[in-house]
UniProtKB/TrEMBL annotation:
Membrane-traversing stretches: none
Gene Ontology MF, one: metal ion binding
Protein known as: Hemerythrin (Two domain)
Residue ranges constituting the Hemerythrin-like domain according to the UniProt record: 21-133, 158-271
Keywords: Iron, Metal-binding, Oxygen transport, Transport
Lineage: Bacteria, Pseudomonadati, Campylobacterota, Epsilonproteobacteria, Campylobacterales
Family: Belongs to the hemerythrin family.
PANTHER family named in the record: BACTERIOHEMERYTHRIN
Amino acid sequence: MDKNIENLIWKSEYNIGNLKIDQEHQKLFSIARKTLSVVKLNNDEQEIGKIKELITELFTYVGTHFSNEQKYMKEVKYPELENHILLHKNLLDVLTNLISQLNTMELKEIEKSLYSFIEEYFIRHIILEDKKINLWNCSLEDLKSHSGWKDIYSVNNEIIDKEHKELFNIAQEAFAYVEEKDKTKKIKEIVTDLYDYMKTHFSHEEKFMQDINYPKSEEHKKLHREIILKINEFVKQLPTMNISDFEKELSKIIDISLVHHIIQEDRKIIAWERMNPHKK
């Protein structure tokens, strides 16, 4: 339990770049941490009541935040508004279901369900979906300037971090200045290099997971395949896209697919390895 509370902290890489939305996300983390802090091992009715009160507060604030976020999406004419609203509804349904089952759940189950909601649903939603809103509303120059490697992306494994940095370095070359007549050819070469190196890196990472007997290796491999497929489809679109649109889409892929995978999934591998050194 204490480990869950310790892990449930706001990280700068969760920022989407909109101050109001980022502050509301941080507030949600604060309420969730407060809720987990009152979860103890004894099954006390008064404690259950306090937890229910806090989860209801979380539910209410999530609803307020989603309303504000939807208003912002309308203001910037975000093209995926309807899909995003549906995702919000699904998240609220998860919390509603949790609240309805509180009286029949043990405290450990409540802790696990709440932590899972924040870790697997909410953080994933921020990184994969909320970031898309601000990326869509950003200029190409802003996207380029923020698409490089940052130390906060480190998973604290020298070999994996080195390969992650190389992926970012290859991607950055796509934004380097070249003559207009050579740009299409150059970008295609760089994205092909990125695609090839990503497959190599994923192969190394999968071997590492096998060596340490990582229990979620099959799930992780599936994520690798999805990213490779996305990059492959992206490369196929190059002949039909203008360069500016292509560069913007590449920035989104880096920021959403690659960064999310590193900070949300690869870190799980390293964390598991450190907690289970005898499993090697």
